Amino acid sequence: MALYGPSTATASVTANTNLVTIAGMDLTIVTPGMTINFGARERKTGDAWIIGAVTPNGTNGGTLTTAGSIPTGYANAPFVIDTTGYLGTDASYAAATSLSLLQTLATLFGPATNLYSGARQIVLDKLASTALGRIAFAIAGRTWGDLVHREYAYTPTGGAQIATQLMELRAFPDGSTPIDALRVDLSAGTVDFRQNEMAMASAATTDLGSAPAGRVIISGSAAILSFGAGKNLTRLLRFTGACTLTHNAASLILPGSANIVTAVGDTALATSDSAGNWTVRHYTRRSGYPLITPQVVAGNCGATGVPAGVTRYFTHGIINTAQSLVYQPAGRRGRFSKLRVATPGPPGVGETWTITLQKLFSDTALTCTISGAGSNDASDLVNSVLFEAGDRWSLKVVSSAGSNRSATTRAARSPTSPSSRIRLRPRSPTAGRSSQPTTRPYGSRQPE
After folding, report:
1. pLDDT per residue over 265-314, tens digit each?
2. DSSP letter string over 240-296?
3. Is the torsion defined by CA of 198, 245, 231, 206 positive or negative?
4. Are 393 and 328 in contact (CB under 8 A)?
5. Residue 94 lies inside a defined structural domain of this protein
6. What DSSP designation does 93 have?
7. Hey, how many other C-beta atoms are within 10 angstroms of the C-beta on 440?
């Protein structure tokens, strides 16, 4: 405790010396190892100096010799003498006390300790089964929490009461009422945890890892190119606006490998890997329509054949010499894939029939070739091509110079409502032309 002299007591010392003259205080109760602070009577200020020797002069003063030299001089200054034998400021003394505690804990749990034959642990043991084993974390001005081991009884809807043991991590937002954040069922060895929902605005980089929440509401219409660099995260997303998720094969992988325009109420599940690359695992439209609806486009030859050594274009039973005369709009956003072609006979030795999907007057990667005298079918099940609603398409057929004459397809198409299916049904050769090969290209388009 602090020892205060009379209100008239003073201390004097010359700078850079260690001899202190005290006036107005009985020094017979002061012993070496105590400390003296200069400059105030009601509190300790500045550094504390260890007292090395005491020489009383009766009961009204004397001299003190400090262990170290005092750099600042004082003349008839107020002072406090304390039993604390420590040289330093209050803050440094508190730090030293905390360090001493940490050193004690390190000794108890450190590798050099052989407590319980090598097991180093803290046990909060209680005899009553209803008692709590609890570690609380509280810092002034902050929301506090605790880690608690307790018994828990619950009754599932329509079931019987169940009692179990829990290890819980709890928060106290109001300072008194605990809210479970994480529950470990010690009887079943399972985990139940709570996830908060936070709002974010769409932006080129919408950083899903910037907030501690497992559920995220994304508003706005700005295009999203990235979900940020968060690693090993799982986020459930809910959209409240129409924004575009931009597919990136490395860092933002989307279903169908294509951009997605969100709608109010749509939801998605996204995860990131250890490098911070994101994948949208599931995407659900609030409307109930699937993100991608497979549709079939198929057809067979009509009465018009494709002579050898020419190029022809056709869509839905229309065949002509130029794309502009047969082009059809996609009608809705979608992906063409899985091109298959079958014919009753082959094109002939050394000859070919090549069928290629065209988009806006240009060949695409979706193509296949029937060749030789022993083959009458071909397919491309690898490539795919994304079409917007207004993009136009056709199939290009190229026959080699010496190939057998081939006929093209005729198509019929159903309405393109979100749930419709397009089927271009095969047609048998017309009478009198049964000797001509019948080419039947098949393909599928997956609207998005």
Report:
1. 999 999 999 999 999 999 999 988 877 665 566 555 556 667 888 998 88
2. SS--EEPPBTTTEE-GGGS-EE--TT-EEEEEE-TTS-EEEEEEE-TTS--SS--EE
3. negative
4. yes
5. no
6. H
7. 20
173 burial level (CB within 10 Å; 0-12, 13-18, 19+): exposed
Report the pLDDT value the prediction gives residue 339, as an integer from 0 to 100. 86
CA dist 289 and 446 (Å) reads 13
Tokens of 270: 């996204």
Tokens of 25: 């205080």
Which of 36-40, 51-55, 181-185, 328-332 bottoms out in mean pLDDT, i.e. has the lowest? Answer: 328-332
Q: How many CA atoms lie within 13 A of 58 on its CB side?
A: 4
Closest-CA residue to 254 (of 213, 232, 223): 223
- For the domain that residue 31 is a member of, what is the CATH number? 2.40.30
Instruction: Evaluate if pTM is beyond 0.90.
Output: no
- The Cα 28–Cα 32 span in angstroms is 11
Out of 193, 214, 233, a domain closes at 193
**CATH number of the domain enclosing 379:** 2.60.120
Same domain, 24 and 140: no
The pLDDT assigned to 410 comes to 32
- For the stretch 240-266, pLDDT in tens is 999 999 999 999 999 988 899 999 999
277 and 307: one domain?
Answer: no
Q: Decide if 92 is inside a domain.
A: no
Instruction: Give the number of domains in the chain.
Output: 4
Q: Which two tokens stand for residue 374?
A: 């022993």
Q: Are residues 201 and 166 in the same domain?
A: no
Closest Cα partner for 45 from 97, 98, 91, 9?
Answer: 91
Least confident of 31-40, 169-178, 345-354, 400-409: 400-409
| Residues paired with residue 144 on neighbouring β-strands, in sequence order | 172
Tokens for 5, please give them: 């002299």
- 143/7 same-domain check: no
Contact criterion met (CB below 8 Å) for 47 and 35: no
Instruction: Find the domain containing 392 and state its range.
Output: 295-447
The single residue listed with the structure tokens 């004690």 is 104
Residue 110 lies in a domain: no
Structure tokens at 295: 């549709």
Q: Please report whether residue 188 resides in a domain.
A: yes
Among positive and negative, which fits the CA dihedral 164, 167, 172, 175? positive
d(CA 396, CA 325): 12
